[in-house]
Structure formats: C-alpha cells, structure tokens
Amino acid sequence: MIAIYTLTSALHDEKAVSAVTREFLESIGLEFELKGSDYGDYGTADLSLIYVRTGGTEGIFKQLLPTLQAKSSRPFYLLTSGKSNSLAASMEILSYLRQHDIRGEIIHGSTTYIAQRIQLLEMIEQAYKKLQGARLGVIGEPSDWLISSHADKKAVLERLGVELVDIPMQALLDAIGKKGDEAVQAASDVATIQQAPYLAP
Length: 201
Hints:
By secondary structure, this protein is of the alpha/beta class. It is built from seven helices and seven strands, in the order βαββαβαβαβαβαα. The longest helix is centred in the middle third of the chain and has 21 residues. It is elongated, with a radius of gyration of 23 Å.
C-alpha cells in the first residue's frame, strides 16, 4: 500500500489547494491512501510519500523531522506537483536533509514518470521490509590478494537490516561429504546453519 502524507502552508487557501491535490493525485493513476497531515502511522505502509503541496512548508517539515525519523529509517520521498511553489519548498527540504546526511528524493516530472517512479519505489520498499531480520551465510574468506572484497557487515546490517553470518568452508565441505541418511541431515544442517555452535552470533 502507498500512503501519502501532506505538507501545506496555512497561508494558502485550503479549498484551492485541495482541488489541485485531487486533480494531481488522480492524474498519477495509482491506488493510494491519502493520510493528510496526520503522520501518526508514518512508515507503516509499503511506501510512505510526503506530498509537499505548497511553498512555505520547510519549517513545518523541520519540526516534524525528529518524529518521522523515530518512526522510520527509510529515505524521505518528497512528492511535488510543481504548483504553489511546492517544487521550490521540496528542493529546500532536500538540501536541508543532505546537509544533515539524511537520505531523501524529490519525485517530480510528468505524471507518467511520477507513476513509474512510485511503483518502483514501492517494490524496493517491499523488498526492504522482507529483508529485515534475515541472516545470510558467507562461506569462506576472500583470498589474500583481494584487498577490497571484504563485506562490510555493519553497513549491510544498517542499510538492509540483514545480518551476515560467517560459515567456515570446512563446515560446508563436511556437510557435502556426508552420505546416505547423513546427507539428508546435512541438508537440514546447512539450511539452519546459523544455529550451529560455531556460528552462534
């Protein structure tokens, strides 16, 4: 599910802004749930978008930022129609995010581009959520002459939520070498190898 939250300056006429919002979002042609300015469940949907409806919203976003970061560690996706100075405000917000090493992206352009980009981001976010808590086995070590091929386990955990678990090469070879009924057990052992004593986290 796509959730769209809004940022709107009180200086703009709500009736006029709402009309533009309805026309713009309908033109994208995607299913979504419009949350408005209620960010209570921000980050729980497959994809959370912040629709910067007008200019003058930079300060509002800055005040919201700590709360939103506490709810989600994902990048901020800023949707803009380009009307009522929404693009200018989005650019200022994105600049602020980058100054503070916070990931973000402005989604702006033709309705076709916007729809395609949102669909892609939704798939990326769905994949990310499925990866959370996963453990992947890393078999063996890079050769001595490979000086830049070591996996950064901390970075993988922080960026993808995936824990990399070292599996000694000999452990795999021992499992493969088993025959008969032991081969069946070996397959099970490999499937749950993260629970083996020598792989205890």
